[in-house]
Write a structure and sequence with these properties.
Elements: E1 9-10, E2 13-14, H1 19-26, E3 39-44, E4 52-55, E5 61-64, E6 68-71, H2 77-88, E7 97-103, E8 108-113, E9 119-122, H3 129-135, E10 148-155, E11 161-168, H4 170-175, E12 190-193
Parallel strand pairs: 8-12
Antiparallel strand pairs: 1-2, 3-4, 3-7, 5-6, 8-9, 10-11, 10-12
Length: 194
């Protein structure tokens, strides 16, 4: 039997979850954050030489003429445009920059264990736990549906990465009655179906 994160079990799973787990689950994504391999269109108004289509490198940077490398991962398109514009001010008066995402390649999750098609799921929009299970072909006959977990690497208060495990009961997801509901997966999450 899977131990609850707080050490308290009830007939329907964990009776309470730590606040950090609940905040991770209840955080719904508001805006798309740029990630590695995304294709961006950077337009500098009235300057064709500085405008270009770029791919975000694995290190999270893009390369732009005049200003060099610019951090792109973890930013929205508007935040990146603002960052590029502020750096271009050294070379151009009041630069107007727009950034649009042409291809989303950084949003993927992993599904492993007792599903028909385990592996990496490339996604183009926000996807919930139940949608990821469906995209993986559903459960095999051996799946322990009420002992699933989402493994997520998150940042603690000091910005250090740490792993959290979110216990999930399929029956609670379907009924909507548990403390963990059908939440949106974040890029890099791993859904484990034992």
């Amino acid at each position: 039997m899977m131990a609850c994160l707080t050490g308290v079990l009830s007939n329907h799973g964990c009776s309470s979850l730590p606040p950090e787990i609940l905040s991770e689950v209840n955080q719904s994504p508001k805006e798309f954050l740029i990630g590695p391999e995304d294709v961006l269109e950077v337009t500098v108004w009235r300057n064709q030489e500085l405008s270009r289509q770029v791919v975000v490198r694995p290190d999270g940077l893009i390369s732009m003429p005049l200003i060099g490398d610019v951090k792109a991962t973890g930013l929205t398109a508007a935040q990146l445009a603002e960052s590029i514009a502020s750096r271009l001010k050294e070379y151009k008066e009041n630069p107007a920059v727009t950034v649009s995402v042409k291809e989303v390649n950084s949003y993927h999750v992993y599904v492993m264990g007792e599903v028909v098609k385990p592996g990496k799921l490339p996604l183009k929009s926000h996807t919930t736990v139940l949608q990821a299970i469906a995209m993986s072909g559903g459960f095999t006959q051996y799946a322990s549906r009420n002992k699933m977990q989402v493994v997520r690497v998150s940042k603690n208060g000091q910005g250090e990465p740490h792993e959290i495990r979110i216990p999930i009961r399929y029956d609670d997801l379907v009924s909507g009655t548990g403390s963990v509901t059908n939440f949106v997966l974040k890029p890099g999450d791993t859904l484990v179906v034992p």
